Please model this.
Amino acid sequence: MSKVRDFVWLLPFIGSILAAISLFTPAAVNFTVMGQVFRYMDGFYIVFGPMFGPTFGFIDIPVLIIIGIICTILISICTIILFISSLTHRKKDTPGSWLALGIILMGGTIYYIAGTEMGYMMYLVIRGSPPESFWGIFVPSFAVIAPFITSGLSIVAFIIGKSTGKEEVEIKPISKEEIRVSEPITQPIPIEDTQAVKFCPACGEKIPHAQAQFCPSCGYDLKKEE
Model:
C-alpha cells in the first residue's frame, strides 16, 4: 500500500478521458424497422434508414435542448477540471476536488436522465398526446453511462488517496550524531542556611536535624543563631 498514492491519479485521469469521449457519442439510441435513431445530449440527432441515407438535425422539443445543453456544458467543465487535476496531483496529496467533481458528474447525469423524461412527458401533454416515457422508447447510450463511470473512479480515487495518505509518512532514522546525551549534573545541590548549625552553641551537643529550632539536650533556642 506504500506506493498506491503514486498511481491513484490514473483513476480520475482515465475517467476524464471516458467522459470526454462520451461528449461525442449518442446519449440515447432507438432501433426500429424504419431506421436507427441516435440522439445526442445537446439535442442533435442522426437517423439511419434502410431505404434512404442518413438525416440529421436538432429535435424540435425546446425543453429537451435546454436540459441537454446545460448538462453538456456541466459535464464538459467537470471533465476538463478533472483531467488537469489528475495530471497536476501525481504523487501528491489527494485533492478534495476529485470528490466534488465526482458528485457533480453523477448529479448532472441524473438531472439529464430525469429532466429528459419529465420534459418529454410535458411536451406530449401540451400537444394533447398521451404521456409516454422517453426512456421507454430510447435506450441509454455511452454518453449517459460514461459520466457515472467517471464519477465512480473519481470518488474511489479520493477515498483511496485519503485512506493511504496516513500510512505513507516517511520515518527517517535518527543518526548517532543527532542523538544528544544529557550531561550529568556536576554542581552540588545548595544547602540551606539552617544546615550550617551542626552543634549547639550552648552545650556543644550535636544537632540531629538541620531544621531543629531547639537543642534536644539543653533546650537552647537555635533561632538566635540565625
Notes: Strands lie at 28-32, 35-39, 44-48, 55-58, 139-140. Helices lie at 10-22, 62-88, 97-126, 134-137, 142-165. DSSP finds five helices and five strands in the chain. Residues 4-168 form a domain with the Butyryl-CoA Dehydrogenase, subunit A; domain 3 fold (CATH 1.20.140).
